[in-house]
Amino acid sequence: MKPRSQSHLQPWDLYNKSRSRVSRMVFVVLVLIASMEVIESQFLVKTLPGFDGDLPFTLETGYIGVGESDEVQLFYYFIESEGNPNEDPLMLWLTGGPGCSGLSGLLYEIGPLTIDYANSTLEKARLEINPYSWTKAASIIFLDQPAGSGFSYAKTSEAYITNDTLSTIHTYNFLTKWLVDHPKFISTPLYLGADSYAGLVAPMIVQEIYNGNKVGEGPHINIKGYVLGNPLTDTSADYNSRIPYAHNMALLSDEIYKVIKCVSYEYLSIILRFKFI
C-alpha cells in the first residue's frame, strides 16, 4: 500500500468538533465516578453516572500498545453482545474525522446507551437504553484511532505523526493483540464497520487482515466482511459530486448550476463545504 499524503487528512467540521467536545466531557465524568473492577490492563465498568442501577450489559475499556516499542497507546470500549456472545459476530467499529472518538459511535450511533435529552441538563446528563443498539446482535469494539483521537495517545511527539497507511497498520496490530488478550473471540466471525473518513482506511485494514492471514502473522482472523456508512471513498469524486447533488436537491437553481458547470468543481465544492457547515 502506498502511504497517503498528510493532505488527505481532512479537518473536522464544526459538527464533529462539538460532538467530540461533548463526548470528552461526558466520558471524563463517567471514568472519574464509575465503579470499575481492574482486570490486568482492562477495566470492567459496572455502573455509570446518569444511569440508574448496574449496566445491563458488559462494558470493558482499556489500552493496547502498538507501533515501535508500543509508543502508540490505543484506547477502546468493548461491549459484549447482549444476545449470545458465544455465537454472535464480533465487530470493530471505526469513526471518522480523522480524529473522532469511538465514544461518538457508542453514544450517538449504534451503542447500547444514548443521551436522554428530555431529562438531561448542561450540569447533569442522563443516559438511557438505545433500543436499536447493534450490540443486541453483535459484540462491538469501539476504537479511538489514530493516536490523539479520544483517549488514545502517543508517548512521543513523533508518534503522533501519521497517515492512512500507518493508521491501518496500527489498527491491524491492535486487533491482533486484542484477540490474543480475548482468545474466546479468535474464531468468532469478524466484521469491520466504519463511517465518514474511516471509509478510506477500512478497506485497507481488511486487506491487511487478509495479508496477515495468508502469511500466518498472528492469530488467524475470521474476517467475514465490512460495512461502510456515509463513507468517504475518494476525495476528488466525493467533493466534486456535491455540486450536482446540491442541484438535484434544489439547493442550487438551474441558472446557478449552468454557471457553476463552467468553473472548476474542485474549487466550488470547497466553497459549498464551508457554506453549508
Automatic annotation (TrEMBL):
SUPFAM superfamilies in the record: alpha/beta-Hydrolases
Taxonomic superkingdom: Eukaryota
Residues annotated as transmembrane: 21-39
Family that this chain belongs to: Belongs to the peptidase S10 family.
Presence of keyword Transmembrane helix: yes
InterPro entries given in the database record: AB_hydrolase_fold, Peptidase_S10
Gene Ontology BP annotations: proteolysis; secondary metabolic process
Protein name (database record): Serine carboxypeptidase-like 18
